[in-house]
Design goal:
Order of helices and strands: EHEEEHEE
Distance between the termini: 38 Å
Shape: globular
Strand order of the largest sheet: 1-4-3-2
Helix content: 10-25%
Strand content: 25-35%
Number of strands: 6
Length: about 120
Amino acid sequence: MVKPMQLGHLVLRVRDVDASEKWYQDTLGLSTTHKMAGQMVFMSANEKASHELALMQLGPDAPGPESDRVGLYHFAWEMESFADLKTLYKEIKTKDVKIAGIGDHGISIGVYILDPDG
């Protein structure tokens, strides 16, 4: 069976692409690799990738997110070390970023944060 190597990228539908771009830059340090003004932004944590995350604007009246519907629950960014995760946690606590929780799943530890669209 042929199978994929790894996840190439994720596309999120957002209300305000410019506000979301700024949030992902300021909160996670992502770089913008390409823009389609007012429509889409392509971002990456990896300078060798064209993008890992794309943001697609829907507009201010877009409904959601809804916790009781099928769909994306979360996505994870891998950190270089646990020390880096702790540093990121301390940094986001100083910003206006909502922390939804912290989870130790045995195979990974996650800090769950909400983006501008929740």
